[in-house]
Amino acid sequence: MPIQRGEIYFVDLNPVKGREQAGHRPVLVLSIDAINKLPLVVTVVVGTKGENVSRDYPTNVRIPPAESGLPMETVFLCFQIRSLDPKRFPETPAGRVSGATLKKIEDAVRYCLGL
C-alpha cells in the first residue's frame, strides 16, 4: 500500500549530522499523495516522545496517543522536516492523524518556514 499524507511511521533516521534528530523515530508524512506515489522521496516531520519536550513552542505540535494511534504522547518538531527515501518506511503505518491535527502541523510548518 502506498505511503499516504497524515500517516505516522517509525523509521530509522540514521545516519545524521549535527543537530538532526537521530535513531528510530516516529515521522508524520507531510508530502501530498500524488508525490508519495512516485519513486521520489517522502517529506516528513520528525517526532519525539512527549516526555523529551518539557515546554510547548509554536514550532512543535504535541499529540496524545488517542489522536495518533501511537503508544505514547508524541511531539512533532515542525522545524525538523526531512525528505526520505521510501525504502526507509515499513510496510504499514504505526498511526495516523485526523485532518484537524494535520492542519495544526501544517500551521506550525508554515510558521517555521515563514510562509
What is the gist of this entry?
With 115 residues, the chain is α+β, with helices and mostly antiparallel strands. It contains 3 helices and 6 strands; from the N terminus they run ββαββαββα. It has one domain: SH3 type barrels (Roll).
Present the secondary structure layout.
Layout: E1 7-12, E2 24-29, H1 33-36, E3 42-49, E4 60-63, H2 65-68, E5 74-84, E6 95-96, H3 99-113
Antiparallel strand pairs: 1-2, 1-6, 2-3, 3-5, 4-5
In DSSP terms (H or I, runs of 4 or more residues), the helix count works out at 3
What's the SSE pattern? Answer: EEHEEHEEH
Pick out the low-confidence regions: none
CATH class: Mainly Beta
End-to-end separation in angstroms reads: 32 Å
Which strands sit side by side, in order, in the main sheet? Answer: 4-5-3-2-1-6
Q: Work out the strand percent.
A: 25-35%
Q: Mean pLDDT, nearest integer? A: 94
